[in-house]
Design a protein that fits this description.
The protein has 469 residues and is α+β, with helices and mostly antiparallel strands. The protein has a domain at 227-278 and 333-464: Nucleoside Triphosphate Pyrophosphohydrolase. 21% of the residues lie in helices and 34% in strands. Strands 6, 7, 8, 9, 10, 11 and 12 form a seven-stranded mixed sheet that branches. Strands 18, 19, 20, 21, 22, 23 and 24 form a seven-stranded mixed sheet that branches. Helix 5 (210-217) packs across helix 12 (457-464) and helix 7 (241-254) crosses helix 11 (442-449).
Length: 469
């Protein structure tokens, strides 16, 4: 918590971090070009089913699935999907300096990043990467997370968390934070930052990558009774509406008593929905996925909606492998990810949605209040209604406490960004909500993050942006 409440940093200021990222962008050679599928090296199109695979059998593949469900307005559809069964590591090293935890962050380039360099975890590697299937160098600082070698570290957080359910088939990564006691070498492209600095940088578009956001979203801040919370608020009175809201978010993160629903009731709600909704996902040949078109350069939906699969040639000067080719997913539109927040019993509650997506590990996951591609409501046939979207699109400026563009993971997604928004609603907003929604404090959200496959990546991205200073 002290790290989250600290932005002063004797090593590097927040403004200097922004300038450092800009300088790294200018210093490293990057060249990304779209190419034909046939021009990808070490990747091939399976002659039997049309799937796209790496010749090693590792990394990931692009396959086809058919989905049947009783959720939403469309009971059945087919689509391409990323199949990456191996579990990667998203890891951050921490070290205490003068009583405050600092996080070792990396300026890292991924082929799909909008602005090339983004602030990434200490280690961000698929299993194929850290096993060196690509014949490249071993990822830096790997031994601190695997327990190998002579380095020592203490695990502070270690969880499996899901990736995008609409694009990945049951994909999970290991989110891990370890603490070191001894001095370690800070290599080029790395720096020590407080959690408060990272959260401040989340106020800017596309600076902090998705993998950093998911790891820091998992950090717990402790549990405190209501009378202690109220005492703290008297010591930290907000001088502006923005300050007061940040304090309210911190209280929601720590509060254990004044919640609308008990945890057991929320678990029962989730269980009831998992038994109500059905999700049947079966593999189908990629070359026979209905309503999708394939040419030399891409696989896309006939209405140019959702996303497409493309191939790229990559040159990045400071990676373990300097050049390669690979498939990427290119979104057809930007998306909106928004949480509505309401004060109930004096405590901020987040309106959480139970959402079904094709690649979910267990039917539904907890999602933001609104999570959609803009193309799904702007024109033409609506695949599904988007409850509460009007509140998001028509919110008054004073209600919007957070609004930035945040990138999806650049190792799999090509220049994809989504509008991340946190909006406070007033007393006139109803407490009673549709069956697929419920109110939760941040403290309750953190309880569910602790366990696998409850909170989806879009929700975690927004939770990571909760600032307290």
């Amino acid at each position: 918590m002290k790290s989250a409440l600290t932005e002063e940093n004797p090593f590097i200021s927040t403004d200097e971090v922004r300038e450092w990222l800009k300088q790294r962008n200018e210093a490293v050679h990057v060249k990304i070009e779209q190419v034909k599928f046939a021009d990808m090296k070490q990747w091939y199109t399976d002659p039997q089913d049309g799937s796209i695979r790496h010749e090693s059998g590792r990394f990931f593949s692009i396959e086809g699935v058919r989905v049947k469900t009783n959720w939403g307005n469309v009971p059945e559809w087919s689509q391409p999907i990323i199949n990456q069964p191996e579990v990667g590591i998203l890891g951050i090293i921490t070290k205490e300096f003068n009583g405050i935890l600092y996080f070792l962050m990396q300026a890292k380039i991924e082929p799909g990043n909008i602005n090339n360099v983004q602030l990434s975890p200490t280690l961000q590697a698929t299993k194929s990467n850290y096993l060196q299937v690509h014949k490249g160098k071993k990822p830096l600082y790997l031994d601190y997370f695997t327990g190998q070698g002579e380095v020592e570290s203490k695990v502070l957080l270690d969880q499996l968390q899901s990736e995008q359910g609409a694009r990945f088939l049951k994909k999970r990564n290991r989110n891990i934070i370890v603490e070191v006691g001894d001095d370690i070498e800070v290599l080029d492209d790395f720096c020590w930052l407080t959690l408060g600095q990272i959260k401040k940088l989340l106020m800017y578009d596309n600076l902090v990558n998705m993998d950093t956001r998911t790891v820091i979203s998992c950090i717990p801040f402790g549990d405190y009774p209501a009378d202690m919370i109220d005492f703290y608020k008297t010591l930290q009175p907000g001088t502006t509406e923005s300050d007061e809201f940040k304090t309210s978010l911190l209280m929601s993160m720590l509060e254990t008593e004044r919640h609308l629903h008990e945890i057991d009731d929320i678990i029962s709600w989730i269980t009831r929905l998992k038994t109500k909704y059905e999700l049947d996902v079966v593999p189908v040949p990629l070359n026979s996925v209905e309503h999708w078109v394939r040419d030399d350069y891409s696989i896309y939906h006939e209405l140019k909606k959702y996303f497409s699969v493309i191939a790229v040639s990559v040159e990045i000067g400071n990676r373990e492998v300097r050049s390669w080719t690979q498939p990427l997913i290119k979104s057809a539109q930007e998306g909106i990810m928004a949480f509505l927040v309401k004060r109930i019993n004096g405590v901020c509650h987040f309106l959480v949605q139970a959402k079904l997506e094709a690649g979910n590990f267990d039917i539904i996951e907890l999602a933001p209040t609104v999570q959609c591609l803009t193309g799904n409501y702007r024109d033409g046939f609506k695949e599904y209604d988007v409850p509460f979207l009007d509140y998001v699109l028509n919110a008054a400026p004073k209600q919007v406490h957070y609004s930035t563009l945040q990138s999806e993971e650049g190792g799999r997604f090509f220049k994809e960004q989504n509008r991340n928004i946190i909006i406070e609603v007033g007393d006139d907003f109803p407490v009673d909500v549709p069956e697929n929604y419920t109110w939760m404090t941040l403290n309750q959200v953190l309880i569910f993050i602790k366990f696998n496959n409850y909170l989806n990546i879009e929700a975690r991205s927004l939770i990571s942006a909760a600032r307290f200073i």
